[in-house]
């Protein structure tokens, strides 16, 4: 019996089709799994970005409100947003680390960015130009050289004794009447009386003790010395002998510091009322930090002991005011005429006292008279400045007679601190400002955050920071 074999071609095709479909299904499964993993990774990165943004948004509010700088502290770090948004958070190990501590470089970037859009024009260069012109006027006058070459030992003692006498000066004038008659002294004797009174008031006020707390030193020993003005020029020059930093950055930082930092002045006197000292945003410094802090003085001197730093700044401002008042006198014809009259009378009186053995050029005495007047005016200026008031930059008759012009040149204590700030090296100011920020807003401030996540055996990392520092 013959057996016939039947071959079903359809069975072979079915097996081939199963093999092909298995490969397709396997490929699709791999692609589906990969796409799911990539979707999870993309979602993970999105949630990491949301978490980093939430941390950066939890910036230190007092730092931004009072100083306009973005940074956060460690209390802002958390992972609540990531846990809520990412479905696979239970399978993820997340580590968040604050990064990029706030440094001087970030402070400079933040200050510059903040000021560029808020202070379109800065007038500090106008004040500086005025001071430079006045300083040059004093130097060009030759007073330091002329009086420095004068012999003080022969006549300073007589002049000091004469001006210091409370009851004898009028009798001395009477005895010297025959000498005075050789000049036209109409009105000059009264000027001399006022000058002598001013001199005695300066000595009695003990200005050095008022400014420096030093009771051992007295103006009586130095104020009439011909080289006093030279010493004062040297003192102010030493405050401004640093190399001038980049003007634009310096002016921006200078304007920022004067606008946002506290000073020794606690109240502002506008003539009618007294108000607490405020920053440029109108926030009283008592709300920025407890108590009154001499931050501007610290920024200038770098001395973290307020009695010393404030004393040093007061002396510098006082010396600058004396030079400005002295320079103003050189440009004021009325004051020069008054000083010339006093000098003529003093010269005659000294000749009378010494029986003609000592003869002093009235030109020298004139400058000494102007200098004593400037010292008295500077003391008065300092009293106004330290009480929170304002004074004209230059005490000129032609300016004081024009109210609008006088108002334009009014300056307060902060204006002079801002001038001295221009001559402090930039890196010194930045490091000192950083110390102030950390004192008021926390010692550990950060500008960026680092997030590291491990998910299903894969590592992911994200670093984020404020755009202003990028």
Could you give the topology of this structure?
Layout lengths: L8 H49 L3 H7 L12 H6 L6 E10 L2 H13 L7 H17 L2 H6 L7 H9 L4 H7 L1 H4 L7 H18 L1 H6 L15 H12 L7 H14 L6 E3 L4 E3 L8 H4 L6 H7 L4 H26 L1 H21 L8 H25 L4 E2 L4 H4 L2 H6 L1 E2 L1 H9 L4 H16 L4 E10 L2 E8 L5
Helix pairs in contact: 4-13, 4-22, 5-16, 10-17, 10-18, 12-16, 13-21, 15-16, 15-21, 15-22, 16-18, 17-18
Question: Could you explain how this protein is built, in words?
Answer:
The protein has 470 residues and is mainly alpha-helical. It is 61% helix and 8% strand. It contains 22 helices and seven strands. The strands form three sheets. The protein has a three-stranded antiparallel sheet, covered by helices on one side. Strands 2-3 form a two-stranded antiparallel ribbon. Helix 15 (295-301) runs parallel beside helix 21 and helix 17 packs across helix 18. The longest helix is centred in the N-terminal third of the chain and has 49 residues, at 9-57. The relative contact order is 0.16. Residues 166-186 have low confidence and may be disordered.
């Amino acid at each position: 019996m013959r057996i016939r074999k039947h071959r079903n071609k359809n069975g072979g095709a079915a097996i081939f089709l199963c093999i092909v479909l298995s490969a397709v299904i396997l490929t699709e499964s791999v692609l589906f799994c990969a796409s799911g993993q990539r979707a999870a990774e993309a979602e993970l990165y999105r949630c990491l970005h949301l978490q980093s943004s939430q941390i950066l948004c939890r910036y230190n509010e007092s730092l931004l409100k009072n100083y306009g700088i973005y940074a956060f502290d460690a209390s802002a770090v958390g992972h609540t947003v990531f846990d809520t948004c990412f479905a696979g958070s239970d399978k993820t190990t997340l580590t968040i680390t604050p990064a990029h501590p706030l440094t001087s470089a970030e402070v400079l970037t933040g200050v510059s960015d903040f000021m560029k859009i808020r202070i379109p024009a800065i007038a500090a260069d106008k004040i500086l130009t005025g001071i430079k012109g006045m300083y040059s006027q004093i130097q060009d006058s030759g007073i330091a050289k002329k009086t420095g070459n004068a012999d003080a030992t022969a006549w300073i003692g007589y002049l000091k004794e004469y001006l210091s006498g409370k009851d004898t000066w009028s009798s001395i004038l009477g005895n010297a009447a025959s000498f005075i008659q050789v000049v036209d002294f109409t009105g000059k004797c009264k000027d001399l009386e006022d000058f002598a009174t001013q001199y005695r008031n300066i000595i009695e006020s003990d200005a050095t003790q008022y400014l420096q707390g030093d009771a051992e030193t007295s103006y009586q020993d130095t104020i009439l010395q011909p080289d006093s003005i030279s010493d004062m020029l040297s003192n102010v020059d030493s405050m401004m002998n640093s190399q001038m930093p980049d003007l634009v950055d310096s002016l921006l930082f200078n304007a920022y510091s004067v606008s946002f930092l506290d000073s020794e002045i606690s109240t502002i006197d506008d003539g009618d009322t007294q108000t607490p000292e405020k920053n440029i945003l109108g926030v009283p410094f008592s709300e920025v930090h407890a108590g009154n802090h001499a931050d501007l003085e610290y920024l200038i001197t770098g001395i973290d002991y307020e009695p010393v730093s404030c004393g040093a700044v007061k002396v510098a401002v006082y010396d600058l005011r004396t030079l400005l008042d002295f320079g103003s006198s050189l440009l004021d014809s009325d004051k020069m005429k008054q000083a010339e009259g006093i000098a003529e009378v003093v010269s005659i009186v000294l000749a009378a006292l010494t029986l003609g053995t000592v003869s002093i050029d009235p030109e020298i005495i004139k400058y000494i008279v102007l200098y004593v007047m400037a010292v008295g005016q500077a003391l008065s200026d300092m009293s106004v400045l330290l009480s929170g008031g304002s004074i004209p930059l230059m005490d000129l008759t032609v300016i004081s007679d024009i109210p609008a012009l006088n108002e334009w040149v009014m300056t307060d204590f902060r204006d002079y601190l801002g001038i001295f700030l221009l001559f402090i090296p930039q890196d010194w100011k930045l490091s000192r400002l950083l110390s102030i920020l950390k004192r008021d807003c926390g010692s550990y401030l950060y500008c960026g955050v680092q997030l590291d996540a491990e998910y299903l055996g894969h590592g992911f990392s994200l670093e984020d920071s404020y755009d202003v520092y990028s």
